[in-house]
Write a structure and sequence with these properties.
Shape: globular
Radius of gyration: 22 Å
Helix content: 25-40%
Largest sheet: 7 strands, mixed
Distance between the termini: 30 Å
Structural class: alpha/beta
């Protein structure tokens, strides 16, 4: 019995499991066993966490995996090798591995940041922030600001969501090293972002960095101090430490992948999602986003089975690119293309964001049955 192990139960890992199972079924490859290993029993719909932690943002893995005949193993992975995973329960030997261990928000090495800062990353971390916010009374909000550090995609969504959640009295600061909020997203979005921040009464402090954090204050590089009990770091993503020593790494720490999504130099290991970077087209590379994680997972799942069967593997390509940035409950900016050409804004953009977040990125229901799940994830070629 050949064994495929999928390391990680996020978007890339779950979509890899569904695609691998569909490919195995259609190839009638009954001698291939597929196992998904994750420390979490749920898929966290992470792109929605800026809204706060809600039960519908956790999707149980076990029922869906059972419906497609994939084994689920809840375990903490400590090491990955070309032939096995080491977990806190056992060593698990594989013939092909799909590494889909994801990423985490990297809190910068600032004195006090790890002790007093919050992140909107995993479900439990977001729930911790929710609890903290619920305990802030009107007096605390009058005398203590809320601070979001990092004004790119996630930071913008978190800051504008805070205004919706807490109302108009709280002072909210958005801090970034770059001179303009959302500068990393390109020039097309600048005006929309500036208007949204002004409307939400969020003060942007550009060209600044935080140098020290305490329980009730932050200090900036300029020497300015801001009284705050709430510092949220949205300072970028780092791939899982499981990528260490596995192969060639890009400048941001992700594993370099070939067009079949195999890790460079590792003939038995595929990768998908935030741990790896592949060419999306001739000019662009994949980003740390579920928009890339899901199709990467699908192709990695297909290719792991095809590779075991000695078949030609498929090549990854994703020339279409879109973004939808939430700027408050009634406003979002939907763009198309790598240059982020604006297509929708305001309420129309918000409706698109809701459709993406609440429908498109959710996995199929186990109740649909195996064949329907396979057809949704990997439509049969006519």
């Amino acid at each position: 019995m050949a064994k495929i192990i999928i390391a990680g139960g996020g978007f890339a890992g779950l979509w890899a499991a569904m695609a691998a199972a569909a490919t195995r079924h259609r190839q009638t490859a009954k001698d291939i066993e597929i196992t998904l290993v994750s420390k979490d029993t749920h898929l966290c719909v992470r792109p929605r966490l800026y809204e706060g932690a809600r039960p519908e943002m956790r999707v149980p893995l076990q029922p869906l995996l059972e419906a497609i005949d994939v084994t689920f193993e809840q375990a903490q992975i400590s090491e990955v090798t070309p032939t096995a995973l080491q977990t806190d329960k056992a060593k698990m030997v594989h013939d092909r591995l799909i590494l889909a261990a994801g990423s985490h928000v990297a809190i910068p090495a600032i004195p006090g940041a790890a002790d007093h800062g919050f992140v909107v990353d995993a479900y439990e971390q977001t729930a911790r922030l929710d609890t903290h916010l619920s305990k802030l009374d009107s007096k605390a909000l009058d005398t203590s600001a809320l601070v979001v550090v990092g004004a790119s995609f996630s930071g913008l969504e978190i800051a504008t969501s805070l205004r919706d959640r807490l109302g108009g009295d709280a002072a909210i600061y958005l801090i970034d090293q770059k001179a303009k909020a959302g500068q990393s997203l390109g020039n097309n979005l600048t005006d929309e972002i500036d208007v949204a921040l002004d409307k939400a009464d969020i003060e942007f402090l550009g060209g600044e960095t935080v140098t020290h954090v305490t329980a009730d204050q932050i200090t900036l590089r300029s020497g300015r101090a801001i009284d705050t009990q709430t510092v949220i770091f949205a300072t970028g993503l780092q791939p899982s430490p499981l990528v260490a020593n596995l192969g060639v790494q890009a400048s941001d720490g992700r594993l370099q992948l070939d067009q079949t999504l195999k890790v460079t130099g590792q003939p038995t290991i595929f990768a998908a999602g935030d741990v790896g970077v592949a060419a999306a087209d001739d000019e662009h590379s994949t980003l740390m986003s579920c928009q890339h994680a899901m199709p990467m997972g699908v192709l990695a799942g297909q290719n792991a089975v095809r590779d075991l069967l000695g078949q030609d593997m498929l090549r990854y390509t994703q020339p279409d690119y879109a973004t939808c940035l939430s700027l408050g409950a009634s406003n979002a900016v939907f763009t198309q293309g790598w240059d982020r050409t604006i297509v929708m804004t305001g309420e129309h953009g918000a409706a698109m964001k809701a459709q993406i977040n609440e429908q498109w990125i959710y996995p199929p229901s186990p109740g649909l049955g195996r064949e329907a799940i396979f057809e949704m994830i990997l439509p049969a070629q006519v």
